[in-house]
Amino acid sequence: MTLPAFAPIGLRFENIDKRYGGLLALRGVSLSIAPGECVVFAGRNGSGKTTLLRIAARLVRPTRGSLSFSGKSDGAEESAVRPGFVAHATMVYDELSAEENLLLFAKLQEVPHAENRVETLLQEVGLSERRSSLVRTFSRGMRQRVAIARALLHEPAILLFDEPATGLDPQGVAWLAEAIRRLRDSGRTILMSLHGESDISSLGTRAIRLDAGSVAADTRTGATFRSILTFAGA
């Protein structure tokens, strides 16, 4: 996977609350993520991991608090920062081919030279020979490759992965770990939610555990990776 050089971007969550009706999914979350960090968010189901990533992707707004970005180049506005998001569901269209999916999303995101960009990404995720196959014929691992290619279309400086290894076989997990390693080493800022220790969690430069919507532990403040990931996977 050949990746262009760019200026890394960081994030800051400031006193974030998110409420869904009577459920408080996040409560008072304040975190600074440095440009180029690879952060693993761990925690049991319902701890707030997905909600925090969706706020970082600007798919939902916090009920209270704010999200901001640092390290933007050329005076870019906050609204110009567009993280790439790989959700728990792959969010690709079953009745379109891999190529058609990527061309559609490239058009929606106004990606320049879309056909060339899609061709490059299909090669990089190992789907060039299946470019014309309908996504409904793909395995979970192949669908995940399409989802990652979609997230990379606009060459984002920030990438968000929500439990990206769910449903993957060992070969798929190995490919995913290598893909994330290359993205991390390219200088991208990566946030990913995971359940416990794995080949993917070992790529993190920092780990944070959420519990009932609050930050319960952070390697930046003295916790260890093992304590965070082991507790979260229990």
CATH homology group of the largest domain: P-loop containing nucleotide triphosphate hydrolases
Structural class based on helices, strands and sheet pairing: alpha/beta
Overall helicity: 25-40%
Major beta sheet, strand line-up: 5-6-7-3-8-9
Task: Summarize it.
By secondary structure, this protein is an alpha/beta fold. 29% of the residues lie in helices and 25% in strands. A hairpin with a 2-residue loop joins strand 1 and strand 2.
How would you characterize the overall build of this protein?
By secondary structure, the chain is an alpha/beta fold. The protein has two domains: 10-83 and 156-233, P-loop containing nucleotide triphosphate hydrolases (Rossmann fold); 95-154. It contains six helices and nine strands, in the order βββαββαααβαβββα. It has helices at 49-56, 98-108, 114-124, 140-152, 170-185, 225-233, and strands at 10-20, 23-33, 38-42, 64-70, 84-86, 158-162, 189-194, 206-211, 214-218. The strands form two sheets. The chain has a six-stranded mixed β-sheet. Helix 2 (98-108) packs across helix 3. The radius of gyration is 17 Å and the shape is globular.
For this entry, give a set of tags.
Rossmann fold; 25% strand; 9 strands; globular; six-stranded mixed beta sheet; 6 helices; 234 residues
Describe the SSE topology:
Elements: E1 10-20, E2 23-33, E3 38-42, H1 49-56, E4 64-70, E5 84-86, H2 98-108, H3 114-124, H4 140-152, E6 158-162, H5 170-185, E7 189-194, E8 206-211, E9 214-218, H6 225-233
Parallel strand pairs: 3-7, 3-8, 5-6, 6-7
Antiparallel strand pairs: 1-2, 1-4, 8-9
Helix pairs in contact: 2-3
